[in-house]
Amino acid sequence: MFNTGKYDQAIPYFTKAAELDQNYVQAYVYLGRSYISLGRWAEAIGPLRTAYRISPTETRKETTNFLSDASFGDGIQSFRNGDYKTAIDHLKEGLTLDPSSAKIKDELVKAWVSYGGKLFTQGNFGEAISAFDQA
Fold first, then answer.
1. Rounded Cα–Cα distance for residues 133 and 33 (Å)
2. pLDDT at 105
């Protein structure tokens, strides 16, 4: 189902596989990838974190890439929804996983600046300055 683009239909099967074998890395990877394919970034993060945690060292890079994508996607979605703090948290996680990513760095700076602006308009000047410093 995953390979034919039926991600919604594949999710229950990957969920069940992960329940039956909690060390089945590919079940978590494909569950997370299904959520990514549907644009459900926040839901992808949990299974991908699990896959990352239980992945053997030699397959961790693949899992890291998917988790970084999910963190970036959820960060962007949170930013668009005006939830700057969540955006910052997820973008920081993505940057930890992929420290050389210019696109994550750029979006993280935007999120910090927007968060600082929000804090400033709320009169939280000290916290706003701190956010701007982070940017």
1. 35
2. 97
Q: Count Cα neighbours of 41 within 13 Å in the Cβ-side half-sphere.
A: 17
Sign of CA dihedral 93, 95, 97, 102: positive
Distance CA 126, CA 15 (A): 45
Single out the residue of 77, 83, 80, 3 nearest to residue 44, CA to CA.
77
Residue with tokens 């804090």: 119
pLDDT digits (tens, 9 = 90+) for 107-125: 999 999 999 999 999 999 9
pTM over 0.90: no
Strands (E), 55-101: none
CB 101 within 8 Å of CB 67: no
